[in-house]
Amino acid sequence: MTVVGESGLPHDAGRRDALHHRERLRKKITEQLKQRIGEEDIVAAGPEKKIRVPLKGTKRWQFIHDRGQGEGVGQGDGKPGDVLGPGGDPNAGDTGEAGTEPGEELYEIWLDMDDVEELLFSELSLPRLKPKTGDVDVTEITYDQIARNGPQLDKKSTLRENLLRNAKRGRVTLGQIDKPDLRYLSYRDLPRPRNRAVIFLAMDVSGSMTVARKRMARLFFYWCVQFLRSRYEQTEIVFLSHTTEAREVSEEEFFGRVESGGTKVSSAFEAVHGIQRDRFPADDWNIYVLHVSDGDNFTADNKRALELIQTLTEICSLVGYLEVDTGSGGSHKLAGYYEREASELDRFVFARASEDRELWPALRTFFASDDVEAAIR
Fold this sequence. Notes:
Elements: H1 13-35, H2 40-43, E1 50-56, E2 106-112, H3 113-121, E3 138-147, E4 152-153, H4 155-168, E5 184-192, E6 197-204, H5 211-231, E7 235-242, E8 246-249, H6 251-256, H7 266-279, E9 286-293, H8 302-313, E10 318-324, H9 334-341, E11 348-353, H10 359-366, H11 372-376
Parallel strand pairs: 6-7, 6-9, 9-10, 10-11
Antiparallel strand pairs: 1-2, 3-5, 4-5, 7-8
């Protein structure tokens, strides 16, 4: 039963309002961060650095007195045909005096990188992540057994045994606890299959990838890596760069190396196939592939690339493609080709981004919880 006061409102209404207000602030902060994921002060922030987030104040609706001290609608000495204007002195703005209207409330919220990641990544997860039977299972110690000996006394079980023993003697009561009554919590080792995952990150570094496009690609992959390492311990990341040929590179080379040349997208997927076959068997690993390009591929190679993608979708939890194109795009781009030829291909998802603020919707598309299609809509 809800207890109400003289006002007729529940006594905990203030607490609920405060929680609601805090949740609104949390959503506003998160939306601000989504718009700013490309800004230098966030991307370059170290673990000790604080990030400033300006935030507009949120107010509750309330009735106030008319600050203009004007008369209400339908009142006054007006005559038919008079032009009606706002209340108050019409010449008040010409006096040069300071205004009396309140300004907009602004807050400055200071967050560290852990706070930023918690707010952003709470909406993301690896889709279709399943337990895999790897070489080594994770052993989890669980205290869920009751025994006559053990490291920790279980009071509830002990009292239950004492009550049962006394009841058998005709006394339904607690008391005179003795050694036969003592029960302890005991542990057991539970083998857990590992939710191991490998994520292939493949980036086009050909000549058509301008400085702006490479920046967006690296920014997208930066947030991918931050998300994966903060949320999934048993995750391997494989970095690939490609022009007309693809090769595995270190993380430092992936984010810092500058290359040029033509584009052959199929080379990236051929490299993924080879590495996956040799090092990451599908029975032991959840497999994900993310490819970023500006969409300018050698036209004759598109069909081969799609064939490789179709083969990958049979063993991968997700194959994703992001097209970073700061120009107008066009039907000749890879995204246009995929839209015509692969829009119904299961476990293959593609997105476009032409500016930084569109990278977050792309991340949300690829790292949606199991229902990827719902995230796209």
